[in-house]
């Protein structure tokens, strides 16, 4: 392939410029305006849909990032200095970092092997143990729709109710995924969406918080705009944040909403094709919906490599330091201090990544669990080995509107050719 096949990439509908031009024409180049209102309305319609049943009545606030949405969702749940928040360990760091912004401590809970997301049994164990050890309940629970796959939200909600702990759903990767026909992010007290450049849809950068009602929507809006009291001058009684989405970004979002359903359909189509084309390859298993309750958007299509699968060159991997980090288009990374860490993908996974890379195909290991990240070494964790094992054996494959059926055949051909013997 001449052009590199990227993992996941923003894909424009062609309608974005119209909304942006309107914003310029009407002088709305600010973090509020008709595009922000319009995008919120579009999102509300989308997330409230229940496939023919009475729609929900959730409210949406557009913010500058999904990370900001996690932060404000937790703030709205009353999370503060010294509190604990239960977070799915198998996630991207934006689920847990905002817990620390509030001076609280994340308590990590491992995954179950079916959805790869928060294990409800372990969640309950963790709640009971935290109550015993600290005398206090965790303040919130954050399950994560990793790679778009729904969590066992019925069980998790049940446990949340039982102990009176609010759920903040991190559906940043799961825009449009459904559980029993209902859109993720609408089950818990709050739901987080992301429109970063590599997510299901993009506003270049941005996010949103799904709120239970108008009152909480207003409260989130208040904190997202520096917490200004109603006086003719700046009057502050609370600490606020500058987290509102710009009207320009929201214009991109409105354009993107016109292709969201198409994008989701394409991700699901690719997933099916991967399953079909890899079905006869021993040692490679695609991650699929565990049962018909789960309806993933397959933001990223992911596969597991059996440890016994031999990939060409696997005895030579991890000899050289890597320059740059994964996933950060604009990120500045620190130089790696070693070629290996005590928790990393198996040699065959890294060998496959290198072979695909040489064939101009971007792939990526699964996310490294937070309880194995050095920065969280002191955070309590309730583990069963599932996420560490997924991290050791998994790989993310190119997924999204820019990936054609021909690309996908080329990718699977290269996987086949990489296998020894
Ligand atoms: C991307 C992401 C976020 C944060 O979204 P940003 O818009 O990048 O700040 C949060 N959680 C998960 C799981 C994500 O993948």
Please explain how this structure is put together:
The chain is an alpha/beta fold and 421 residues long. It has 12 helices and 15 strands. The protein has helices at 16-25, 34-48, 66-76, 97-101, 120-134, 153-163, 214-224, 247-257, 260-278, 347-358, 386-393, 405-418, and strands spanning 59-63, 84-88, 105-109, 140-142, 168-170, 178-179, 182-183, 190-194, 207-211, 284-286, 294-295, 301-305, 364-365, 381-382, 394-397. The strands form 4 sheets. Strands 1-9-8-5 form a 4-stranded mixed beta sheet, sandwiched between helices. A 4-stranded parallel beta sheet has the order 4-2-3-14. It has a 4-stranded antiparallel beta sheet with strand order 10-12-15-13. Helix 5 (120-134) packs parallel to helix 6 (153-163) and helix 9 runs parallel beside helix 12 (405-418). The chain is globular, with a radius of gyration of 21 Å. The structure holds pyridoxal-5'-phosphate. Pyridoxal-5'-phosphate (PLP) is lined by residues 65-67, 70, 91-92, 94-95, 144, 170, 172-173, 194, 196, 207.
